[in-house]
User: Fold this.
Amino acid sequence: MPSRRRFLTAAAAVPAVAAGSVACEADDAAPRPSEASGAPAVPAAQAGADRLNFVVILADDLGYGELGSYGQRLIRTPRLDALAAEGLRFTDAYATAPVCAPSRCSLLTGLHGGHATVRENPWGPGGQGALTERDFTFAEALRALGYRTGLIGKWGFGRERPDQPSHPNSRGFEEFYGYLGHRHAHDYYPAYLWHNGTRQEIPANRGGAREVYAPDLIEERALAFLDAHRAEPFLLHLTPTAPHAPSQVPDEGEYADRPWPGPDRRHAAQVTSFDTLVGKVVDRLTDLGIAHRTLVLVTSDNGPHEEGGTDPERFDASGPLRGYKRNLYEGGIRVPLIAWSPRRVPSGTTDRPTPLTDVLPTLADLAGAPAPTDVDGLSLAPLLRGSGHVARHDHLYFYRHHSGVTPRADAVDHGRGRRLAEALRRGDLKAVRFAPGGDRTAPDDQWDVELYDLARDPGERHDLAAARPARTAALVRLMRQSWAPTPRPREPFGLTLDVTGRFTVTATLANGSARPWTALRLILRAPGGWHVRALDPVTAPRLAVGERITVRWQFTPARVTSDTTLACRATAHHAGEEVTYTARTTPG
Assistant:
């Protein structure tokens, strides 16, 4: 059954309405779900030299020290090293969790692990995590402004089915190609991938055959997306699965003759192939003549892995940091982050502690799109523009609740790898603590607490908790304050549509952004033959910050089937730009 709320979401295409259209319409071709379609049609933003494009590239388990620009010596990453030299390299960037799903949820939504919907990997105590209708992503922010949005690669949330709130089409990405499920993304030679709501079989890989390498398909689709939208503003979120285990590549390339075990040779080839992919994206942007108006961000979802026989110590994959994937020490959560845009982003380095929750407010700020103010991230726009003061976080919070362990990570945790843990950085001080088991409500005196000074001890070798009990206790109090037992209630933002009576439908448009909206207009679309009458004004001159407008329509249905939908489109002006939100509901 279609959800009552489709906020810039999948399946139903809401046609653009001409300026002379009335505010309640009937249409024989009313929006209907389609498994093959992407997010609903939103008028494209006006193309222009001042409209910035975005490419956000997320590696899977790429360690802080696995790029040459971050100290790597055995694995070649020339293209990323060049981007780091030409652009801005972050030395203190952070994933919000040491494993994939919660980290990616925070990146998309701007909420850290104490507030986000997804806080564990699928095989953790909570099972498969899914995004919900209350989750607002950076893709939704840009879609409202008319950006073309695509996610190519790994999604990893929710069930493997279309037309559900956790599907990428439902979370602002009009074009999706890749892996829907988390576990499925561990297969480099899959028997199928997804295109929007359609499962596309790969017959050559059936029965465990290895004929078609999924990273090649992901690369092809990503470059095609750039080609298709070169003349209009776009967001591409490129999420290849390299260098996640298993270490599988068609060939080991330049590492074939290295005297290393096979998993290490193939892991090195995976990292270099990721570097090559980033280079191809940059080359395509350059060839299309749009590199100068495109911001490229490259980062990773957590620290380096050790699965499948890969030895992260061979490559010094965490650099000078302690720990690996699954650890809340720096090696598990501090990640590479490179920002590049010719003649826009200044070259150099920054040591600003920067969590990936900052991506959503940054993209919205740079694009001029409204976005929720109740997120944990802060905009990096002044820093990327090379001017002005950029806000700093009071503290950064990290959370882990993961039942699986690996030997090196567990040894770093001194055998506490299966225990719930959390960490918090404030200034240069960082506290890490481990619960007595999996119960976060356990009294504080039952936790193991450690304190480190990252300025003097980035490798977290010297525990200062006993010597500085007052500072340790202060950080523990902040951890307690940073955690909400359930995802915290969000301030209303955007459009919702509900059947509120037997023959009444109500739309609510809420301004949860930082600026007022003007010139509001709401239009309801109904199937052909229906009679629809607005009970409230469908326009308003202004909607202040924190306010909402509600419009009710009375409808007389001609015929209702299981897939009949009512659809609403709301437009408003934000900072001089028109934004569009859509929603739909089922009256039956």
Q: What stands out?
A: The longest strand covers residues 517-527. The first helix runs from residue 78 to 86.
